[in-house]
Structures are given as C-alpha cells and as structure tokens.
Design brief:
Structural class of chain B: alpha/beta
CATH topology of the largest domain in chain A: Heat Shock Protein 90
Number of domains of chain B: 1
CATH superfamily of the largest domain in chain A: Histidine kinase-like ATPase, C-terminal domain
CATH class of the largest domain in chain A: Alpha Beta
Largest sheet of chain B: 5 strands, parallel
Largest sheet of chain A: 5 strands, parallel
Oligomer: heterodimer
Strand content of chain A: 15-25%
Strand order of the largest sheet of chain B: 2-1-3-4-5
Shape of chain B: globular
Number of strands of chain B: 5
Strand order of the largest sheet of chain A: 2-1-3-6-7
Structural class of chain A: alpha/beta
Order of helices and strands of chain B: EHEHEHEHEH
C-alpha cells in the first residue's frame, strides 16, 4: 500500500524537491502552499504523513497542527514540522503542540524522507496486521533489474522498497526495518559486500537477512559474499524463481520481533550551541551535507530549553558564551537523567590544557578546537554517536541480565516460601489430625469406664440400700460425685481443645439474644435463684456463633455460679466504649477474686475457690481466653474479694491475614 | 406383623450393656433384648448370615440401639449398610454413643439415623434417655407399614 504524504510549504522549490524525493521513495506526494489548501486536502483525502512549514502566507503552521491534534481521528497522524530558520522557540512551540518531529531548513531531503518513513514505521509497527506483510529492500543500480525484481516480489506478496545505491539502501534499511534485503554485489560507490558488512556492524540491523546478487563469474565470489556476512548468495543470471526461493528460505528462518534499537544509519539530529552565528551556519552547512538534521541554539539557556522538548543524538557546545556559558550548560545537561547519556562535544576557540581539563571535568565526552577541520569534527561526532549506541546496547543487555537475575531470585524466593509454607501447613494438618484422633478416643474410651463406675454405684445405691449403712451409702455417693466430676473435666478439656482447632466462621451474631438464651437456660436449670439480670439490647458483632455461645455460656455461667451466696445478686451484660473500641463486659456482684491472682485466672486448671464452695474444673476461663484469641481480641478481668467480678472482652473486626 | 418387639442392642462394652438392660428393667420395658457385640455380628443378625445363618430375617427388630465404636465394623458402617438394603431401610436406628463429636452426630443423621443419644455419665440421665426411647419407639411410634 502506498502511503500518501501531504507537503505544505509556500516555497515551490521545497515542494518540488520533497515531492520528488518522497515519490522516489515510493510515497504518493500531495502538495499545497497554504493552510487553506492543507485543510481541504486533510478533509478530502486519506493522509498518512504531513510535512508542514511553519510560516505560511495565510497563517501559522503550528496553529494548523493544533487544529489537527484536536481532532480525534487525526490525533495520531504523523506530522513533521519544517521551518526556515531553526529558531529554538519555534521548535519548542511545534514539539509542544504535538509535532512528531521538527526539521530545520535548509534540510537534507533524504533526512526528511528517512524521518518520515521512520514516523510511519512507528505507526505501522503498532498495528497488528502490519507484521504479517514482509517488506523486502532491493538495492541495485540497474533500473531494469530493480523493476523486474519488484514485480516478481510483488506477485509473491512481498512489499518492496528500492534503493539505487548502497548508501541510500542503508538509510532505508534503518528507517523502514525491512524483513530482508536483496543487494547487488557490483555497484558504483559502495558495493554489496560493503553494505552487508556495514549492516552487520549495526546492532539494530545486524539480524537483517541479506541476499547478495552478483553477475560475477569468479569462483571465489560466493566465498567473499559469505565472508561479508550474507545469508544467501545468488548469481544474477539465475532464474528469478531461484532468487524467490532463496529469499523465502531466509525470511522463514528470521526470528520475528525486531529489537527496538535506534540504528546507526537512521537519521541523526545534532544540536549545535554557539553564540557566533557565522560559525553556527558554517557548521550547520557542513553537517547537513552529511545528512544530519542540525538544530541551532545561540545560548546554553536556549539549548537546555530545547532539550527539554526534543531529544538529539549529539550536542556540540561552545565553551565561551554569554549567559550560563559552556561549562555550566554542560554540567546541567550531564546532571539530567534523561540527557546524561547524550554525547556532548565541547567546542572552543582557545586550546590549552587548562580549559580542556575544565571542560572534560564537567562531563563533556570529547573536546575539539574550533580551528579543526570540519572533517575531524564529523569523524568525532560519528565516533561519539557510535559509542553512545554501543553503550545503549550494553546497558540494555546489562539491564536484561539484571532483570532476569532478579526475576530468577524472586521466583526462587517465592518457591522456597511456598514450599516452607506448604510444609508447615502439612505439619499443622498432621498435628491437628493427630490431636483430633486423640480427643476422639478420649471422649469415647475415657468416658466409658466412668459410666460403669457411676452406673453401678447408682445401681448399688438403689437396689441394695437395705444392706448398706449410712457410711457405705456416703462412700458410694462420693464415688459417684468423683466420677461425674471427672466426666465434666473430660468434657471441658475436649471443649477447650476443640475451640483451639475449630474453623472460625464469622457471621453477624446477636450477642444480646445469645446472652438471653444462655440466662434463660440457667434459670430453667435453677428456677429457685432470685437474681437480677440486665442484658443491654442490640449488641451485635461479627464472630463465630458457636464460639460466642461457648464464651457467654462460660462467662454468664460463672457469674451465675459465683453469685449463689450473694443476697440481691445481680448480673449485667453490656458494652462500653474504650478509646473508640467496643468492649463487652459481664459483671456480677458475687464472690469476686483477689486482683493479685488476676494473672492466673485464664490459665487452665487454675482455680481461686475450693470446689466445695463453688464447683468447677478451672477450664472455663481458659476456654474463654482461647475463643477471644481466635477472634484476635483481648480478654481480662477485674474484681475484688466479696465485691464481684467483671470480665471484659473485645471482638475486633476480622483480619484478612494472620490465619494459616 | 412384620415387626417384632425385639430391641437389638449393638454394644461391645459389657458394663454399658448391663446398665442399659437394668435401665430397661427399671423403666418397665419388658421387650426382648437381643445383644450383639460387634458390627459384623449386628449385620449377620439383621441379614441372617454368618453366626446367625438360618435365622429368619423377619420379623425385624422394633428398634436398633447402635453404639458407634464397635470392634470389626464401626457403627456408622453398619448404619450405612442397613440403609442401603430395602429390607432394613426403615428399621428405626438410635445411635447411642459416648462421643458428642459434632461430626459423629452429623454423619449419623446423614446416614439415616432416627435419633442420636449421647450416653451420659450420669446414670439418671441415661435412664431417662433410655426410658424415653423405649416409650417413643415401642409405644408412641407407629411402625412404618411394610
């Protein structure tokens, strides 16, 4: 598919020059000289790329750009701004308005075409179907052969771009990133083997499959071609089918997913900073000749402002300038993380050791005297750009390496953690199962003999009363009481162990209702007790209902038990706010306890009263503690001997983590 | 009539057996009580196999009092097999056990137990439970037809 490029410039020379260059590069050029014409073209045609001048007879190109960017359909249309004087303020305005690139006049037309192609290529690579079409770059000086090959390739479904010289071919390869390359071995200027050798030196293009054609009959032609790094070698007199077959083979073998590295041969932009207009223009002329886009800035301040909106490939910085001067500019540029790696060459009129050391000390990458030949300068620039590219490549490789190491380490750590956790969980499950089996057999086997002891004692008491004196009957009663007490102990211990193992299932629990149910049951079992019960209504929490029942059974049961000898007994269940936390409280005015023993209250089997005074196993409060613990809450008690006890507990909202 | 007034007591603990039988006597339950001592014997009795081969399967017992912890074959498995056979599917089974593990209660009901009674250590409670069972299954409960 041919891409349409709209060229808007008021200069006929520029229009014709660029139209011709784009046409030769396989674009369909449209031209216009005014904003009005540009608007018409945009409205009526499908445009793929716009080359837009800033100063137009009927208005400002940057304003048209703003208009284009404000329309959703055109937001992504590549626009390359072109301006007669490389005025820094214009550049900044253009780039900030949304220009994809900004090239100063006088321009190098191959640079403009190459940049245009790169901009289009970026768009193409973003569309998924673009990857399906293979683009073949044909480099040959013979127009006849080019056309013949282009037709044959086109019929085979390839997209073809052509170049007539090795130099042009390299630029096209960098800009269009073709799938494969067919290059003639014998050409004027750069020959085919040299093109391939140069490609192999370029990190971004070294993977490009190359097919070398030659008319040569020499025996060692193939050897030399392969030596240069060609992937395949075909004699020109061979059938076109042979070429197509070899091409298909090397394209198949190419790995997909081209690396996104800027190529050495892709268009480069150089920022030249000098207060001398004469020198700047001389410099710009010399560099544009080489195919560079040259941006001119007249002061360090201007240069830094421009660098904040447009990146460049190399900076030439005059040491002695009014304003912040070369050294300070250099220091600021090298201090910026985004610009730090851009090669910077210091220029100076004076050449002495001291300024050289001072210049390099601020971070300049190279140092050159203004009196040097431009050839020397060009070579130095080339070296710096190449060095930068290798550094980028190295950094990329290092980062990838570091990244993969980091990933491996993370994966290993995660795996080890998962393994350790799995082991713990397994062990825990095993222990739990063991404990469960133990409690199960305790609940069955330990109780059975007790039932025998109690049952036969009862039978003796009932069936043989006449043959037992009072003492004998008393002994039997004691046997029964002991057996029952042991039964109660077994029950309480099992409950304690079950509370520790139970799965907590939180739901809305009406604590007031639960407390009412517990006290109703206590009243039913002990209907003669006169006791005042106050249960605050509407107390609700998120908790395990079964365990809350166990908790209130114990706490209210205790309060009931320890008020047995209190006249005007009273039990309260209520809620208080402590530092924005809800604290539940069971309070009684019964026997109470000595605060000195408060610490042992919640330990299993610790009792503060004689069994004869108040029966119990000493496990109840330990169970309460465990219930509250399982909910992540706190439980504590306050009291005084003869003045009652208060047990406080909290049920904080569920924690997401913290449970295995 | 397909159902006798026999109570089948599946119990391996002779103390529990004696206490249970005494409780029946005390509650004036005069039904014939057949005692088997493990799960296999219980099934042999019900299906007239093994040591009970040659016995007529009918009439079926009025009620089975089934301990869960039994030698050879556990009570839950006995229950499962009784419920799997058409002939014994409807015989009332009361699971009688010392355990009050929730999972035992749930499994018993899942497998089709008619009632679950925990053997209390307190004999009077136990007797009350046995008495009520006797009343319920032998007097109040109308056996399912067939």
């Amino acid at each position: 598919m041919t891409a349409t490029v709209l060229i808007i410039d008021d200069s006929l020379t520029v229009r014709m020059d660029l139209a011709e260059a784009f046409d030769a590069a396989g674009f369909r050029p449209l031209t216009g000289s005014t904003i009005r014409e540009a608007r018409t073209a945009i409205a009526t045609q499908t445009i793929d790329l716009i080359i837009l001048d800033v100063l137009l007879p009927d208005g400002d190109g940057v304003e048209l750009l703003g208009e284009i960017r404000s329309r959703p359909a055109l937001r992504d249309l590549p626009v390359l701004m072109l301006s007669s004087e490389a005025d820094v303020a214009d550049r900044i305005r253009g780039v900030q308005t949304g220009a994809d690139d900004y090239v100063g006049k006088p321009y190098d037309n191959s640079f403009v075409v190459a940049r245009g192609r790169e901009l289009l290529g970026q768009r193409d690579s973003e569309s998924p179907d673009a990857a399906a079409i293979n683009t073949i770059l044909v480099i040959d000086d013979s127009a006849t052969f080019r056309e013949e090959l282009k037709r044959a390739l086109g019929q085979s479904g390839y997209r073809v771009i052509t170049a007539t010289t090795g130099e042009e071919g390299l630029r096209l390869a960098a800009g269009s990133r073709p799938t494969a390359l067919i290059v003639d071995g014998v050409m004027p200027g750069m020959d085919g083997a040299t093109v391939i050798r140069k490609l192999r030196l370029d990190v971004a293009l070294r993977g490009l499959p190359c097919l070398l054609l030659t008319a040569s009959e020499e025996q060692d032609a193939e050897l030399r071609a392969l030596d240069a790094g060609a992937d395949a070698f075909v004699r020109k007199e061979e059938d076109l089918d042979v070429i197509l077959a070899r091409l298909a083979a090397i394209v198949r073998n190419t790995s997909t997913g081209a690396e996104d590295i800027s190529s050495l041969a892709s268009p480069k932009r150089i920022l030249a900073v000098d207060d001398s207009m004469t020198y700047l223009h001389e410099l710009a002329f010399a560099l544009r000749d080489e195919g560079y886009d040259v941006v001119l800035a007249h002061s360090g301040e201007e240069a830094i402002e421009l660098l904040s909106v447009q990146s460049v490939d190399c900076i030439l910085l005059d040491l002695l300038m009014p304003g912040i001067g070369g050294q300070e500019s250099c220091r600021r540029i090298k201090a910026s993380p985004q610009l730090r790696n851009t090669p910077l060459i210091m220029l100076t009129a004076v050449e002495d050791r001291q300024t050289l050391v001072a210049g390099l000390g601020t971070g300049a990458d190279d140092y050159i005297a203004k009196s040097s030949e431009f050839d020397v300068l060009r070579a130095r620039i080339q070296v710096q750009i190449r060095r930068k590219q290798f550094e980028d490549e190295n950094r990329r490789i290092r980062e990838q390496l570091l990244h993969s190491k980091l990933e491996a380490a993370e994966a290993r750590a995660a795996r080890e953690l998962a393994e350790a956790k799995a082991m713990l969980v397994e062990e825990l499950e095993y222990k739990n199962k063991e404990l469960e089996a133990f409690s199960y057999s305790v609940s069955h086997d330990l109780r059975a003999p007790l039932r025998g002891i109690d049952g036969f004692s009862q039978a003796l008491l009932e069936d043989y009363t006449d043959r037992l004196d009072e003492t004998g009957q008393n002994y039997l009663s004691r046997i029964r009481a002991a057996a029952q007490r042991m039964g109660q102990l077994i029950d309480d211990m099992l409950l304690l162990s079950r509370v520790g193992r139970a799965q907590i299932e939180r739901e809305r629990v009406d604590l007031s209702g639960l407390a009412q149910a517990v006290t109703d049951e206590l009243r039913r079992q002990d209907p003669d007790r006169r006791i005042v019960l106050e249960i605050q209504s509407g107390l609700v929490t998120q908790a395990d209902r079964g365990l809350m029942r166990v908790l209130l059974d114990n706490l209210l049961g205790n309060a009931w038990k320890f008020t047995a000898r209190t006249a005007d007994a009273r039990i309260d269940f209520k809620m208080q706010e402590h530092e924005n936390k809800r604290v539940f409280l069971v309070q009684d005015n019964g026997a109470g306890f000595d605060m000195a023993h408060a610490g042992t209250l919640f330990k299993p089997f610790h009792r503060l009263h004689a069994v004869a005074d108040f029966p119990g196993t000493g496990i109840g409060l330990a169970t309460c503690q465990r219930v509250v613990d399982r909910h992540g809450g706190r439980i504590w008690a306050e009291g005084a001997v003869g003045r009652g006890a208060s047990v406080y507990f909290t049920v904080p909202p569920s924690r997401e983590k913290g449970q295995l | 009539m397909n159902r006798s007034n026999v109570i089948l007591l599946v119990e391996d603990n002779s103390d529990d057996e004696e206490i249970t039988l005494r409780a029946f006597r005390k509650s004036a339950i005069a039904n014939e009580v057949v005692v088997v001592r493990d799960g296999v014997e219980a099934l042999d009795y019900m299906f007239a196999t093994g040591t009970h081969a040659g016995r007529s399967m009918k009439p079926l017992p009025a009620v089975i009092l089934l301990d869960l912890k039994l030698p050879k074959l556990g009570g839950l498995e006995v229950l499962r097999r009784l419920r799997a056979e058409d002939s014994t599917r409807r015989v009332p089974v009361v699971v009688l056990t010392s355990s009050n593990e929730e999972k035992d209660v749930l499994s018993s009901y899942d497998l089709g137990a008619n009632s679950f009674v925990r053997k209390p250590v307190d004999f009077t409670q136990f007797m009350e439970a046995a008495r009520q069972l006797g009343l319920y299954w032998l007097v109040i409960n109308e056996p399912a037809p067939g």
